[in-house]
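Q: Hi! First time doing this. I have a protein sequence and I read that you can turn it into a structure. Is that right? Here it is:
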Amino acid sequence: MAWSTQAMARTTASPEQVWRLWSDVGGWSLWDPEVESSALDGAFTKGVRGSLKPRGGPLTRFELVSVEPCRGFTNCSRLPLARIDFIHTLREDGGGTVIEHRVEMSGPLTFLFRRLIGAGLARGLPGAVTRLARLAEGGPG
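A: Yes, that's right. Below is the predicted 3D structure, encoded as structure tokens:
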């Protein structure tokens, strides 16, 4: 069983401007109000682990499972019998940049975690992507 949700925003910011915000893991709470704190245990490269404290939730560990500078990255968190991939992609489109954030949940207990955290993820994603786009353009979040 699998579940997913996604959100997109178009921005005049360059992929490099968005990348600077993405790769500053300690600053994720600036554009995602659902993040209380986040940290990375090394450089922003594939295989490096980090931690994230969602608002109202427990501290979770994640791993950067793919990193393509100025194009996208995926971080994965493992839950009991489930996995959540947070997929972030950029593409240039007619003089601007399209930012897409997608969340994919899979594993035998997806049905349970979807009920526990799925609605909150789906609700928070559009605002986070919109704030990220504004911050990348140099505006307020």
